Amino acid sequence: MSFLKNTKIFSIYLSQIFFFIFFIFPIIWILIMSFKEFRDIIAYPPRFIFKPTLDNYSEILFGPGGIANFHRLPDYVKYLFNSAIISGGAVLLATVLGVPAAYALARGNIRGRMHIAFTFLSFRFAPELMVILPMFLIYTQIGLYDTYIGLILAHQLICLPLIIWIMLSFFQDIPTAIEEAARVDGASVFLTLRAVILPIAGPGIASATIIAFIFSWNNLIFGLVLAGSDTRPVTMGILQTMTFDQIKWGLMASAAMISAVPGMLIAIYLQKYITRGLTMGAVK
Amino acid sequence: MILENRLSVSSRTSYYLMFAPALIMLLAVLYPFFQGVYTAFTNQKLYLESSTFIGIGNFLELFKNDEFRDSIYRTLLYTLAVISVQLPLGVTVAWLLNQNNKIQSLLRNTLVLPLLIPPVVAGLMWKTMMQPQSGILNWLLNNIGLPSFSWLSDTNTALISVVLIDTWVFTPFAALIFLAGLQSIPNDMIEAAQIDGASSSLIFRAIQLPWLFPYIILVTLFRVSDSMKSFELFYVTTRGGPLNATRTLHITAYEEAFRWANVGRAMAIVFFLWIISYFLSIFIMSKWKRKSEN
Questions:
Q1: Are A42 and A114 in the same domain?
Q2: Structure confidence by residue, pLDDT tens digits, B30-84
Q3: Cross-chain Cβ contact A33/B128 below 8 Å
Q4: Cβ contact A133–B263 (<8 Å)
């Protein structure tokens, strides 16, 4: 009996470790690659012991000469900056629009509100090109193509449904008693939202905005279709390390690692909010 | 009484006011959407402003095209493979996470990483590891005595290789949702079964798996609609190649628009893709309703 039980415990451990390795290994491998020189990267059999170098990071952040021969900012840094503006702006706008809207959907008796809420949600499930391809046609005509504003507006497709749905499920969890007390005392709906609800909703808003930021930051296809040389996001920057005839493996690995920093930080610090965010509030 | 009525009227207006800006944004997005639907029925080119309405011309031409029919088949095959791998694997990982031991939290902490790094990065990582000559995966295979695999570079293995990458990225998603499901089972239900002497495999089959049903539907809904429109993993790993082996509908539409400049036809493809995903989602949701009515 105890032998059987030990076997079972052991096999559970073993499977857990198997999956742990399966999920962590690719990240570790590229992290290692980002510290390798070219000849160590292309070596076969793969080299596990090598002299680590920071050259890849220095080239991607300061240009081919490194910090010593610094001339101008490399493109990748500009792409990082573009992504920060686009995703930061998009999340800010989506929060301003989405939080009051979610509150109104949760509390106000708005006619057809669930239909409207589902229409927002349905954009999450539609193929991106369904909206951004026509958007491309419109943008090239009205001059929004390759502009921050244009991309921030387009990224509402990612951010707004996320924020509305996460906040909707969050507001529905808050008991109405506190608000009723405020309302009986004569506070308006706006005042109730600002003075009573928003202070409680802080953690909910934080997780919704952070997750929206990650998804916006990680996106490729919006930039591919709607951004030109002025506004290219960081995800396109990684792809530029692959030229027609060769991939600059070391640069690719270090660019990939830098671009993944926001996501990895969130993964470490805020993971309890993630399930709710990923399912748009469908699972708490 | 009168005061109360006046209050509720003004508060209703406030709610509408709070909601209006987001609604305007929604309408602003619906406009390109409908324009896109219209474009599907025109011969719109990429850099020409004028276009002519050609009815269902694009669709007729597409369905005459073998390559298009193959790409419908490929998209459905990919989605089916994704679901049939990730649902069982997701339940397994969730069950392992639900164990009360130390490694469980280590596994959970790693599990969120694939979901939060950019899909571009995930695709490139695996593409690197899958290099036929110098990649580490073939080195591992050779070391345990298996022959090399051609991964993304062979028409027979490319699609399944992308399924593997997709599995790495999205199994954590399934597992985290199933874990939330497992943890929502009332403790006394499990405890009562344990007191009656039920084995953990019986508890799994009789209590946990049936309880997970709505969660399985939810994951299926997300995974099916995301796999049908999967774009970024394909774009960074194969761009539809080798020899169209991974050319799914979304990739075909992108190429049609930006490589061949046939925006009208591209929109027809996306519209078709949207319609089939839409009906698939409705079908999946209907399973959920039937179950909850019982």
A1: no
A2: 899 999 999 999 999 988 878 889 999 999 999 999 999 999 999 999 999 999 9
A3: yes
A4: yes
CB contact under 8 A, A29 and B136: yes
pLDDT tens string A258-281: 998 888 887 777 776 777 777 767
**Residues A49 and A175 occupy one common structural domain:** no
Contact at CB, A260 and B232, closer than 8 angstroms: no
The parent domain of residue A27 ranges over 2-62
- Computed over every residue of chain B, the mean pLDDT equals 90
Check whether residue A115 and residue A219 sit in a common domain. Answer: yes
Instruction: Name beta bridge partners: B53.
Output: B42
DSSP B50-104: ---B-TTHHHHHHHH-HHHHHHHHHHHHHHHHHHHHHHHHHHHHHHHHTS-SHHH
Contact A263 B18 (CB under 8 A): no
Contacts of B161 (CB under 8 A, 6+ apart): B126, B130, B151, B152, B237
> Do A110 and A149 sit in the same domain of this protein?
yes
Residue in A closest to B215 by C-alpha: A283
A132 with A180, same domain? yes
How far out from the chain centre does Cα B244 lie? Answer: 21
Rounded to the nearest integer, the mean pLDDT of chain A is: 88
* pLDDT value, residue B250: 97
Q: Are residues A49 and A113 in the same domain?
A: no
Q: What is the ipTM of this complex?
A: 0.90
> Any idea what the Cα angle at residue B248 is, between residues B238 and B132, rounded to 5°?
25
Taking the CA atoms of chain B, what radius of gyration do you get in angstroms? 24
Which positions in chain B touch A282 (Cβ < 8 Å)?
A: 218
Domains and CATH numbers, chain B: 59-119+150-293 (1.10.3720.10)
Q: What pTM, to 2 d.p., does this model score?
A: 0.92
Nearest to B110 among A23, A33, A188 (CB): A23
Q: Is residue A162 part of a domain?
A: yes
Kindly give the interhelix angle for A113-125 and B263-293, rounded to the nearest 10 degrees: 120
Of A12, A96, A220, the CB nearest to B99: A12
CA angle B227, B109, B217 (to 5 degrees): 35
Tell me if A270 is assigned to some domain.
Answer: yes
CATH assignment of the domain containing A93: 1.10.3720.10
Answer whether B211 touches A (CB < 8 Å): no
A119 and A154 fall within a common domain: yes
CB of A278 less than 8 A from some CB of B:
yes
- Both A31 and A8 in one domain: the answer is yes
- Are B129 and A29 an interchain contact pair (Cβ–Cβ within 8 Å)? yes
CB pairs under 8 A between A and B: 266
